[in-house]
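YM 10:42: ChbG/HpnK family deacetylase sequence, as discussed on the call
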Amino acid sequence: MTTRIFLTLSIILSSLYSATAQSNLPRLIIRGDDMGYAHAGNEAILKCYKEGIEKSIEVLVPSPWFPEAVEMLKQIPTADVGIHLTLTSEWDNIKWRPLTDCPSLRDADGYFYPMIRPNKNYPKRSVVENDWKLAEIEKEFRAQIELAMRKIPRISHLSGHMGCTSLNDEVKALVKKLAQEYHIAQYDMSLMDSGVLMAGYIGAHITSDEKLQSFMKMLESLEAGKTYIFVDHPGLDVPEVQAIHHIGYENVAADRQGVTDIWTNPRVKSLIKSKGIQLIGYSDLGR
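YM 10:58: structure's back
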C-alpha cells in the first residue's frame, strides 16, 4: 500500500513539474495572413502549415480565391482559422468587392477602396477619406462572418486586414460586439487584454537571407513565460504573384516567397525545438 501511494504521489508531482515547466516556456502564434488573395498564396499558406511552423491562418472572405481556400482548409482540419475582416482591395491588377450593398465602402467601380488611411500614392482612395457609414461596415462584417462560419465552421477568431478593425473606437466596439454575438472568443483587440505581445523581425529583412537572420534573432529574443504573435504573408515567387502589387510594394512575390522559405526552414524548426518554444493557435490562448 505504501509503495502504491508513493508511486501515485510521484506521478502527480511529475505531472505538476511538467506542467510548471511547460508554463514557463515561450509561446508563439505564427499567423499567415491573406488566404484567398491568390491561388499561389493559398498554396504557400497550406505548405507553411503542412511543412512548416505556421499555426494560424487568416482568410479573406470577399477575395477571389476564397472558395479554393475553403476546400484547401479541409486538408488541414486541425489548423486554427480566423476571419480576416476586410474593407480594402489594395492590389492594382486584381480587385474584390464587398459582399453587401454598401455604397460608402465602394469606389466608383464598385470595388473596395485600396487603402484604409490616406496614402499619397492613392489620393482620396482610402476609407477614411470618404463618407463611410458604421452601419454599412457592420452589415459587411456580418456578411463576411456568416459566410465564413457557414463554409468553415471551426473559425476561432477575428482579425483585421490592413488594420480595418481599428479604424476608430466605434469600429473597435463593433468588432467586440460581433465577436460576442457570434461566440468567437478571440479577436485582434482581445490579444492585448490577454497579454499577448507582438513579435517582429529584428534587424534588416529585405533579402531572403536578411529575413532568415532577422527571424531567428526574433526567436532568440522570446522570453520564458510570455506569449507572442508573429504575423506575415506567405506566397510563392511565380508569375501569378509577380503580377500582384501596388505602388510602394512592388516586390510582393519575392518578399512573400521569403516568408514561405523561413517558415519551412529546417534551421528555424531546429531553433524552435532547442529553445522549447511552444507553437500555438488562437484557440490555445485560454488554456
